[in-house]
Amino acid sequence: MKMRRIISWRSDESDLEIPVHRLLDVVSIPTAVRATPWSLMARRFAYALALIIAIAFVSYLDKGGYSEDLTFIDALYYSAVTLSTTGYGDITPVTQSARLVNIFIITPARVAFLMLLVGTTLSVLTEDSRKTLQIQQWRNSVRNHTIVIGYGTKGRSAIDALLAGGASPSSIVVIDPDPNALAVAEKRGLVTVHGNGTKSDVLRVAAVSRARSVIVAPSSDDTAVLITLSVRELAPSAMIVVSVRESENQHLLMQSGADSVIVSSETAGRLLGIATVTPPVVEMMEDLLSPDEGFAVSERQIADDEVGANPRHLADIVLGVVRSGELYRIDSPEAETVEPGDRLLYVRMNGSDAARQE
């Protein structure tokens, strides 16, 4: 299911040329599961062997039509040397029927035999070229994708939410230095880039300048700051969402260019405190954050008949109004009526309202 990647290209921010052989082990594009070269050769060898045995049976059925009366071993020998085009000439067809069998059965079988052997060799030799071509095609066409930097617990959970929200696996690119983590991501159909997300070259390989959003989920806060700085420099218009452990680092991320910062330690701490007082509240929060079941927080465009209405009086449970990129809570004066172009942040039941979401 693996694949790797490309040639030289011109990035939107600067020219960057990387030889193909250096990228084949960097980028992996998910494809249909392919057999290894050894299994491919073994399978085709079995086909060739079966063809030799089949032609041996055909020759043996007309064993009296050759220069000597054939045993089955003779027929097998004749089949092998004939299909392989060795042709010693010690056994030859002498009757009309034997010669017709050679013309209409054994000769086409000889061509098929050679195609099997040559096809296996060409398939193995051209595998890297095939991978390079597919990677180049992906690199030329990728737009508005989401890059997830760090495929740990937070990165995997973020991808789960993206996929549950309808995102295509092919629109998600994972960057991580751990080959084992990337192997897991590949099995989910995700495009992967092997490397350190703090390096500009790695980000360019992932086409960060054309990404719609970037999720930064490394294991340490200082790494998150470096990644955010690099991403913002290369992708001024991308939405950057960052996860940090400590709240005192939140302002550093905002100054580095993050659009949103999630403080994981404080969020977990609040939930722990609430769980000791009102456990059902925590259960409901987990339900809202679980993408596959129960309720979920979602966003949708307002309908034409909802323009001018108070969002509190709509059929959905509205939490806020998104207007020109700004979120207004339901109790704010700006959210008293909805305007054309607004989007609603609301609570929906998973599996429903699919037709209303964009």
Automatic annotation (TrEMBL):
GO BP of this protein: monoatomic ion transmembrane transport
Pfam families listed in its UniProt record: Ion_trans_2, TrkA_N
Claim: Transmembrane helix is one of the keywords in the record: yes
Transmembrane segments: 44-61, 103-125
Residue ranges constituting the RCK N-terminal domain according to the UniProt record: 143-263
Keyword set, alphabetical order: Ion channel, Ion transport, Membrane, Transmembrane, Transmembrane helix, Transport
Secretion signal, residue range per the UniProt entry: none
Membrane topology: Multi-pass membrane protein
Location(s), subcellular: Cell membrane
Stored InterPro entries: K_chnl_dom (IPR013099), NAD(P)-bd_dom_sf (IPR036291), RCK_N (IPR003148), Trk_Ktr_HKT_K-transport (IPR050721)
UniProt keyword Transport, yes or no: yes
The protein, known as: Voltage-gated potassium channel Kch
Organism: Corynebacterium jeddahense
Gene: kch
